[in-house]
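Notes on consecutive records. When two proteins share a document, each keeps its own sequence and its own token line. Never mix them. Below: protein one.
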Amino acid sequence: MVVKGSFVRGYLDGKLIQEVGDTRNNVKSISVSAAIDDKSGDIILKAINASYEPLHTKIDLEGAGKLSGSGKAIVLTSESPLDENTLEEPTKVSPKNEDVNFSGTTISRLFPGNSFTVIRITKSGEKK
């Protein structure tokens, strides 16, 4: 038996007799959506990283107009997707606020594993 990544190969007398594997290992575990808040003009990004591992991602907002270069993020994450709040640990899974800074129209960000992130970006010259 030879195990490499997500593939297992079985040999008998040096000859390959069976091979099993998951070819989806190049599939990224992140989903991102974007919308514009009609009232404020803010761009709202929502990202889910379903992997246990953090994932570095670049999000291109070309065509969104002139952006302010800053925003706010609310991140909900926990070490395990099975974590939950209890009476003993009432804030084990709770949102954290972060500042977001970028230049141009590309946001480069590390999304933690098992996370849901909402980023709100103000367009330049627009008020909330």
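Protein two starts on the next line and is unrelated to protein one.
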Amino acid sequence: MSAAFAASAVANLKQSPVLWLRSLVLPAAILSLFQIGFLARMTRSAMLDVLGQDYVRTARAKGLGEWKTVSKHAFRNALILIVTAIGILLSTAIGGSVVIEQVFALPGVGRLVVQGILARDYPLV
């Protein structure tokens, strides 16, 4: 796909940093909206699960403050599921970047993968 048929093209950073940043807002928003929602649901689910555990109730019963209980005990244990979800979302982001870079005519890893596939450069892919 040539840049003439693309939805937009990235501006040059050295010429206009503000225009460059504005040209990246829409692709970044499209690529991250699903992932932010999914990660927020996973974080909420993990925190609700961990907050019902016995060690959190024990920390509260000992008189530990709510902020310290949530940050030290609950969130650290909920991070296991959150980091796992981030790993899964990272693969989705790489796959989605192929489409986003083609639609918005952005240079990047996604475009490099598409060029490698078209040129049958299997080691690159």
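For the record: The chain has one domain: 3-118.
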